[in-house]
Every structure is written in structure tokens, then in C-alpha cells.
Specification:
The protein is about 35% helix and about 15% strand. By secondary structure, it is of the alpha/beta class. Strands 3, 4, 5, 6, 7, 8, 9 and 10 form an eight-stranded mixed sheet that branches. A two-stranded antiparallel ribbon has the order 1-2. The protein contains ten helices and ten strands. A hairpin with a 6-residue loop joins strand 1 (about 10-15) and strand 2 (about 20).
Amino acid sequence: METEDETSELWTRCPACSAMLYNEALATNLQVCSDCGHHMRIGVRARLESLCEPDSFVWHDDHLAAVDALTFVDSKSYADRLVASQAKTGRQDAFWAASASIDGIDVEIGSFDFSFMGGSMGSVVGECITRLFERATERGVPAIVISSSGGARMQEGVLSLMQMAKTCAALAKLHDEANMPYISVLTHPTTGGVAASFAMLGDLILAEPQALIGFAGPRVIKETIGEELPDGFQTSEYLLEHGMVDQIVSRGRLKMVIARMLRQLLGEASTPCTSGAAYASDESESSGEPKA
């Protein structure tokens, strides 16, 4: 008879519908519940490899590490928090960046790692994103950033806040000097200074279903204004309805949609994304998602 620990290694209970999901099948389905479509958290490497050709990655800037310039201490020191997060993730900070290709299209792509201090944006994350935009400008290729962040990293104070302007300035050069598109992908959650800067400046803004997207959290807003908030406030669906995102795309269709949009933005002939067909077909667009 299986013990509870052995069962937990084989199965995951969906937090949305309580279905028991076989972990191997869940991984194949990119951590999306096959019963209700709930999107669970997915590892950064698995996310990027689901979008890009596996042999195309050239990783960048993973040697950059934050310093505790303010000797910040709350319940514990910032230096200790960094050491703990680095040991937990095996990474220096909360952003992965790479040169890669999607369906034969060269791109500069990066993703936040929410498991590293809630994907907060400090000086290293801001530098990695700035360098991503700069490489895209130099190479004349599109840029893609997948956001999942609690916002600016308070332990770095104004050094963190200035990354909002720094990343946006580099993004402006991508448009002005290289005339290349930027696709922003918003996942759960995308909040704070990240949502208030480059994440909402995409030429195309895509979002995963039911992602929390906003500056301050709904609880903080509710307590501040003293009013009840609308149903679904700050979800992907609410933002789509109010014109803040362009399309909600399920994780399995994301590669296919990005490849198709990149070809349109670059003025290239559209071709079938064969690798995307492994997850979904165009028939899935009848699920209520708007067509691109």
C-alpha cells in the first residue's frame, strides 16, 4: 500500500478543481490541469524549453549576483535572503536570459524565476533585462520577456526602483534603433514595479488564464479605498475586457501563437508551427479566447 509521501511523489491535487493528476502527465501538459485548465507554476527551464528549439539556447548573464549595498535588515538580513535563495534555486538571481529561436525565428528571450525571492526585480534582474533588450537591438531580432514577479525588490531601495526607468529606456532603443517588436507575456502573478514598467509596454501583450496582474494587490487596494472590488478584478480576463492585454493564451498554445505573431510583426509569410501542434490545434481557439 502506498504511503502519503509516495503518493505525493506520483500525484498532484489541482488547487482549482481538486482533481488528482499524475505528475508525469502533468509535466507533459506543461503543469496545466487536464480537467479544468488551471495553470500551475512551471519551472523556468521547462517554460523556456516549451517555447524555443532545445538546441538553440545560448545563455547569458547568469554570473551576475546582487550585493547588499544598503545592508538591509528586516526579519533577516538581505545578505542571508540572497544566500538562501541562491541555495534553493541554484541561480544567482531571479531572471534567466538567452538567445534562442522560436520556430526558426531568432529572438532574445528571458523569464522571471518566481522561486527566487518572489521574482522580485533588483539591480541584477534589471541589468539582465536591459542587456536582453540591448542584445536584441544589436542583433536586430525581437525580444520576449515572460514576467512573474512580486515587483521591485524592497531590500535594494531606490536601486531597485531605478530599474523601471532603466529597462524602459533600453526597450525604447529596441523600437527606435532596431525597429524590432517586443512581446510581453504576463503570468501569475505580475505585479508592482514590473507591471508598472516594461511588462505593460509590449507591442503585443499576452497573458496566461487567471493570472493576477496589477500594481498593488487587490487586498491593499480594497483596504485603501474602502470599497468592494469588481468580480475578477486584476485577473487576465478582467484586463482583456478593459483593453489592457491583447490576448489570453493557454500555455500549450503559447509557442504557436508567438511564432505566428512574430511572423506577422516581422512581415514574414506565415507558416505552420509544427512543434506547437504537439500541444494544440487552431480548433482550440473556439474556447472563448480572442483570435490574434
